[in-house]
Amino acid sequence: MLDVGKWPIFALCPQEELKLIRQASVLGSTGNEALYVTRNDEVFALGSNCSGCLGIGDLQSTVEPRRLDILCGEKITCLSYGSGPHVIAATSDGEVYTWGHNAYGQLGNGTTSHCFVPCQISTNLINKIVTEVACGSHHTMVLTSDGEGYTWGYNNSGQVGSGSIANQPIPRRVTGCLQNKIAVNIACGQMCSMAVVEIYVWGYNGNGQLGLGNSGNQPTPCRIAALEGIRVQRVACGYAHTLVLTDEGRLYAWGANSYGQLGTGNRSSQSYTVPITVDKDRIIEIAACHTTHTSAAKTQSSQVYMWGQCRGQSITLRFLTHVTCTDDVFACFATPAVTWRLLSVEADYHLTVAQSIKKEFDNPDNADLRFLVDGKYIHVHKVLLKIRCEHFQSVLNNNNDEIIEISEFSYPVYRAFLEYLYTDSIRLPPEDAIGNWKQHNHLEKLMLNFTILQL
């Protein structure tokens, strides 16, 4: 179980309060602000409150946690922050809230005025379900359930991918090469953006962080040719470097390397993709954060490595740590001590059976089957599919394949169908499900029925 007390900002909280925390995020360029969610879905904030990033309605610092009434009960699923700082959060319903610094329109509300309380953003996102959020220094990106990326904010280096360098005060879909692509993951560096389709990159490239083999900025999405044919699963961005994890558990890195954050054994920056080996073990998770020069990875054998900036030192080769998760790397070694994602503090033994099963959807750690749809993998468990769905009882009996390719359905529809079997809920706009319906097809009829049940 994660211990939020490892982050210095939480030393201000009494132990009784720490025991109630279910989710947490340590923000900003100093690690002096924090937001957390309690077990009953109340949201609190504390810290120095630069630019109103705590969302408490004013600019006052506070060592006493203050409640964010607007977000209480909203069930936050993901959160990210920029260097301003500004903050973006998405809820289980796919709604988006932003607050904090806004001089470049990074809050997406059409203005450049700072916002001291969370404000829901709906422009161009109506009927869209946001599943992932990411912030650069002063720009913002979200991913929707149908695989579309939307960006807004500062654009001096093309980081919003619009083709110009004009700032963008409201969300707009990233098109160009991504027009007909389905993204499954996004990430932002300080002034660049990335989407996993294969992998497309855009924005600032002065340190080669786009991996294109040069240092020229890229105002629209561009595919990394060096990774053609390689199935990318996740991308993570540091301040000016990039990590990529493939479906086979291999790691690639590129970009700035002044602290050894690429893990190549030296401090020479790289504008081309470089394969990084971690003791020949399969990597299942990578981590980086755009406010640090630190990298981390977790292997299939649960070993956690770090490299890059480490409390003022430069670690140029992968260092085997004593910690058990990549989150702890950023609490113990990174400067500042921040979080690279929204922390989930809930211990497994506190989860219900339903919650435990929900956590395992599309989790590659112990899945025994992968569906390949639109070139992307979905990780599942045969026994659960057979228990939950009559269709899979016949399909999977006596089937020892580890990969099943699906060609008749789109990735969002098939993923939503499988997710329903784990969660009993649909994360798919009804028009997408109905639009993919085909007569006499058992699976599509199931998908349609599941969607109607949710209306």
Secondary structure blueprint with pairings:
Blueprint: H1 15-18, E1 21-27, E2 33-38, E3 43-47, E4 62-67, E5 76-81, E6 86-91, E7 96-100, E8 115-120, E9 130-135, E10 139-144, E11 149-153, E12 168-173, E13 185-188, E14 192-196, E15 200-203, E16 218-223, E17 232-237, E18 241-246, E19 251-255, E20 270-276, E21 283-288, E22 294-299, E23 304-310, E24 313-320, H2 326-332, E25 343-344, H3 353-359, E26 369-373, E27 376-380, H4 382-388, H5 390-396, E28 403-406, H6 411-423, H7 430-435, H8 442-454
Parallel strand pairs: 26-28
Antiparallel strand pairs: 1-2, 1-25, 2-3, 3-4, 5-6, 6-7, 7-8, 9-10, 10-11, 11-12, 13-14, 14-15, 15-16, 17-18, 18-19, 19-20, 21-22, 22-23, 23-24, 26-27
Descriptive notes:
It is a single chain. The chain is an alpha+beta fold and 455 residues long. It folds into three domains: 1-73, no CATH class; 76-347, Regulator of chromosome condensation 1/beta-lactamase-inhibitor protein II (Methylamine Dehydrogenase, Chain H, 7 Propeller); 351-454, Potassium Channel Kv1.1, Chain A (2-Layer Sandwich), CATH 3.30.710. Helices cover 14% and strands 34% of the residues. The chain has helices at residues 15-18, 326-332, 353-359, 382-388, 390-396, 411-423, 430-435, 442-454, and strands at residues 21-27, 33-38, 43-47, 62-67, 76-81, 86-91, 96-100, 115-120, 130-135, 139-144, 149-153, 168-173, 185-188, 192-196, 200-203, 218-223, 232-237, 241-246, 251-255, 270-276, 283-288, 294-299, 304-310, 313-320, 343-344, 369-373, 376-380, 403-406. The strands form seven sheets. The chain has a five-stranded antiparallel beta sheet, with no helix packed on it. Helix 4 crosses helix 5 (390-396). The longest helix has 13 residues, at 411-423. It is globular. Mean pLDDT is 91; it is low at 437-442 and 451-455.
